[in-house]
Amino acid sequence: MTTPHTERLMWEGSETVHAATEALRRNEDVELELPGNFHHALFAHMYPDAASGALEDVDMTGGAELIARLAELKGLEPLVELSKEVAKTPAEVYVQSPVPKIIIRFPVSPPAA
Fold first, then answer.
1. What's the mean pLDDT when you consider all of the chain?
2. Domain assignment present for 1
3. Which of 7, 34, 76, 86 could join 38 in a cystine, given CB atoms 3.0 to 4.6 angstroms apart?
4. How many angstroms separate the CA atoms of 4 and 6, rounded?
5. 28 φ/ψ angles, rounded to the nearest 5 degrees
6. How much is the pLDDT for 3?
């Protein structure tokens, strides 16, 4: 069984969304690293009820809705377009931080018998 290709990208706005969209259309996984200064905003946005002083660790799994939520953050608005593309696929989305990143993975199909 071959390992699927992962397109690794650094956040640069709309250009990154375009590159990620092209990778998704090729059924490639995408790993999108966000600048470190998004960590606290990402944590506060995804866990609004977290206790003050809580360990700011993000580890979420879902679908396009996670990317749509991130697009609500100032500076990440172009992600709304990526969320629409992800919604057209069977891919799963993982959001992780303290090194903020979005991972989009297609399901691995079992090898042919």
1. 90
2. no
3. 34
4. 6
5. -100, 145
6. 52
> What is d(CA 43, CA 113) in angstroms, rounded to the nearest whole number?
44
What is the three-class DSSP state of 51? Answer: coil
**Residue 113 forms part of a structural domain:** no
Find out whether 96 and 103 touch, Cβ atoms under 8 Å: yes
- Which residues, including other chains, have CB under 8 Å from residue 77's CB and lie 6 or more apart? 71
Q: What is the pTM of this model?
A: 0.88
Radius of gyration of the chain (CA): 14
Amino acid at 41: A
Residue 35 DSSP one-character state:
P
**How many independent structural domains does the chain possess?**
1
pLDDT in tens, 30-79: 999 999 889 889 898 888 888 887 788 889 999 999 999 999 999 999 99
Which residue has tokens 């696929």? 89
- Within-domain flag for 110: no
* 50, 43 contact by CB (below 8 A): yes
With a CB cutoff of 8 Å and minimum separation 6, the contacts of 2 are none
